[in-house]
Amino acid sequence: MSEHLRTALNLASLSVPSLPLRAGKVPFGNCPACTKNACGGRPNMKTPGSCACPAPCHGWAAATIDPNVINSPTWRRAWREAAGVAYHPGGAGLTVVDLDNADAIAWAHASLPVTRVVPTTRGEHWLYRGAMQSANAVRPGVDVKSSMQYARWLGPGTGTMTALPDVVRALTAKEPATVRPVAVTVSAPVGGSACPHRTPTYLDRGIAMAEQRITEAREAVHATVYRTFLAVLSTHGRCGCLTDAHTARLFTAAQAKGESPRHCTDAWTNALTTLGLSHV
Questions:
Q1: Does one domain contain both 96 and 167?
Q2: Confidence band for 43, pLDDT divided at 50, 70 and 90
Q3: DSSP readout, 219-245?
Q4: In this predicted structure, what is the pLDDT of residue 197?
Q5: In a domain, 279, yes or no
Q6: Which residue stretches of 14-120 are H helix?
Q7: Would you say 4 and 20 are in contact if contact means Cβ atoms under 8 Å apart?
Q8: Burial 102-135 (b: 16+ CB within 10 A, else e)
Q9: Where is the DNA primase/polymerase bifunctional N-terminal domain (predicted)?
Q10: Distant-in-sequence, close-in-space partners of 109: CB < 8 Å, separation ≥ 6
């Protein structure tokens, strides 16, 4: 039994719905039977389980606590290929405040009630009891992951988990900020002059703006996701600055708007092809 499968079964015993993640912290794509949501789909459902497909399809909505599903032959194949485990916080009655950098952590210490903390690669997850609407980029370096969203499982964390406070709920109720268009300028070709992105802050700001642009889309979500991917790759795709973590942030924002992992992958691939970057 793989470590990831064992973790998923342990989470199931605690009533925490989980799913496998591929490299880059993204879910497995939909199976052929579910391509283009031919099965009816799950991404817009408030609870997982509307699709009878036995594969770990449909991103966050694949998350389950059923050990028979988690340990099924189809899922076992996915676990063998998995790079990590994710869970559906809202399905477990939890909310994760994802703090992506030191400034965000400092803000949380000054503004939020103390609760359980899970260290992440770049920051911390603060876990609260209670589910709510998910939203990305509610403030610089801060995402809220709960209903219709997944978070990477990085361990139980430390500290006593407290009830979801109003100050966290209010983060998603703010008046939307004005989104400036993501610049569509072409970077220097590979092998050219020094990278124009002078500091990581420049790239991080661009990714945050792209996430916000997707999150605030009220219509034509497919087109918005594609145009945003195209803009990001046009600016940052040639110099090697983009990492799997950046891609995962964009895919997560798109999936929170109802896009399937397959749609995200197709949009990303089409943008690469349009810009002639598919070989880079």
A1: yes
A2: very low
A3: S-HHHHHHHHHHHHHHHHTTTT---HH
A4: 59
A5: no
A6: 67-70, 73-81, 102-111
A7: yes
A8: eebbebbeeebeebbbbeeeebbbbbbebbbbbb
A9: 8-184
A10: none
Query: Which amino acid is located at 185 in the chain?
Result: T
Q: Are residues 97 and 166 in the same domain?
A: yes
Q: Domain total for the chain?
A: 3
Comparing 94-98, 149-153, 199-203, 218-222, the range with the smallest average pLDDT is 199-203
* Ramachandran angles phi, psi of 141, nearest 5°: 75, 15
**Considering only CA atoms, which of 53, 29, 96, 102 is closest in space to residue 255?**
29
Whether 41 is in a domain gets the answer yes
Please write the tens of the pLDDT for every residue from 117-155.
Answer: 999 999 999 999 999 989 988 999 999 999 989 999 999
Task: Write the pLDDT tens digit of every residue in 161-189.
Answer: 999 999 999 888 744 333 343 333 333 33
**247: containing domain:** 200-274
Token pair for residue 145?
């992951």
In three-state secondary structure terms, 74 is helix
| Strand pairing report for 94-99 and 84-87 | unpaired
